[in-house]
Amino acid sequence: MLQIKQLVEEKKEEYLEFLKELIKADSTDIQHGFYGNEINAQKIVMKKLEAMGMEVDSFEPDDSELTKAFEEANPGHDYNNRPDVVGILKGAGGGKSLILNGHIDTMPFDHLEEWITHPLDPKVINGKLYGRGSCDMKGGLAAAISALDVLKSAGISLRGDVIVESVVDEEGGGNGTMACILRGYHADGAIIPEPTELTVMPAHMGWLFYKMEVRGKALHSSMKWKGVNAIEKMMVIMNALRELERKWCMEKRSSMLPPPTINFGVIEGGMAGSVVPDSCMLDFGLHYLPSDADADGLGKNVEKDLFDAIHFAVKGDPWLSENPPVIKLYQQGSGYELPRENPLIQLIQSCHEDAVKAAAVTRGCEYGSDARLLTNYAHTPTVLYGPGSIEQAHGINEYVGLEQYYTCIEVLAHAIYEWCR
User: How far is CA 323 from the centre of its chain?
Assistant: First the structure.
């Protein structure tokens, strides 16, 4: 619709200022989601949705209820003064419903001397808006809300309901979206405008994150042979896991996604070069294909392969066989994949191609998102499509390209109209 393109052009400054306002509000997750500052930005979202005439539902997730309802919930998170904000635009009836979901929380920031601008002082430089959350994912959330504003400004009425979910604690594992599901929100389809560079993404990997500890025997390093070096024992297991990753790379294939990976994220052990270390801790994670999930959509099948590889390595080492590692799973997320013929995928492809006059790219997403939750638990088929690149997320000098931001508003406005009319 020509009217949508014209309205986006006319309201560019308004939509830019809205995104800047969100970035200025510190909404960082603290300690990987155990605490958070989301309320600062949620107040802005709530005000905007109310001004658009939407019915607004604000509620704090219940950690205990989430843990009971979802095996992949993340327990122990404090949601005092950390509300989800949901806006509902009721349709006239008879149309399909749509969820627009986005997380308001951002990762913390540091090394301020290396930033072009302060992370909470957004600035436009060469067509890029810099600031924490500009890419991941206040840019996408602002685009979704602005897309709905375009339709309202055009006086377009819809038959289907539109539900805007501004959720907390996505970076801590997705409890905010789980809380929306427990609240009863579901729809015929959902779009999450995570930073996909305007690529249509209807699939992503699942994941499992672990902490593993190996014990050794401390001694002065001059008599190393009489002690047991825990770091070296951990390396025995790490080498086995590297072999498992190579095996997966050869055997596991997907037309949408890369092969599974195992990443050694943090390793800690020892106190000095003069001491044989008596403990070593490894924090590691693996990403697996949705096709390898168990009957519940989680990674128990992959976990069996992992534990079998560790057990084989441990069994072959006299010390480890008597002193096996202690392994704790501390976070997991299911994968998901929609069939390519899903009508929501085809709609977003079509709206994108109309807007940019070029073929849409459709592929899977390497990183995880709340799309898995809406698809697997709310039975709401979900597609990722949004402005910015994941390579900018979480880093110093995070930015979103404004051309992508405005294009996303236009595409989402078209998609909302076509889906819900």
Answer: 37
**What's the half-sphere exposure (Cβ side, CA atoms, 13 Å) at 329?**
18
CA distance 260 to 250: 10
CA dist list (Å): 199 to 193, 286, 338, 362, 390: 10, 24, 15, 6, 11
Tens digit of each residue's pLDDT, the chain (421 residues): 679 999 999 999 999 999 999 999 999 999 989 999 999 999 999 999 999 999 999 999 999 999 999 999 999 999 999 999 999 999 999 999 999 999 999 999 999 999 999 999 999 999 999 999 999 999 999 999 999 999 999 999 999 999 999 999 999 999 999 999 999 999 999 999 999 999 999 999 999 999 999 999 999 999 999 999 999 999 999 999 999 999 999 999 899 999 999 999 999 999 999 999 999 999 999 999 999 998 888 999 999 999 999 999 999 999 999 999 999 999 999 999 999 999 999 999 999 999 999 999 999 998 899 999 999 999 999 999 999 999 999 999 999 999 999 999 999 999 999 999 9
For the purposes of burial, counting CB atoms within 10 Å of the CB of 299, is it exposed (0-12), middle (13-18) or buried (19 or more)? buried
Task: Say how many CA atoms lie within 13 Å of 18 toward its Cβ.
Answer: 27
Report the run of H or E that residue 140 belongs to, with start and end: helix 138-153
- CA dist 90 and 374 (Å) reads 20
Q: What is the pTM of this model?
A: 0.92
Dihedral of the alpha carbons of 271, 273, 278, 284, in degrees to the nearest 10 = 70
CA-closest candidate to residue 261, choices 104, 139, 368: 368
Specify whether the CB–CB gap between 69 and 63 falls below 8 A. Answer: no
Rg (CA), the chain: 23
CB 206 within 8 A of CB 290: yes
> 85 forms bridges with which residues in the sheet?
58, 166
Helix and strand counts by DSSP (H, E) for the chain: 12, 19
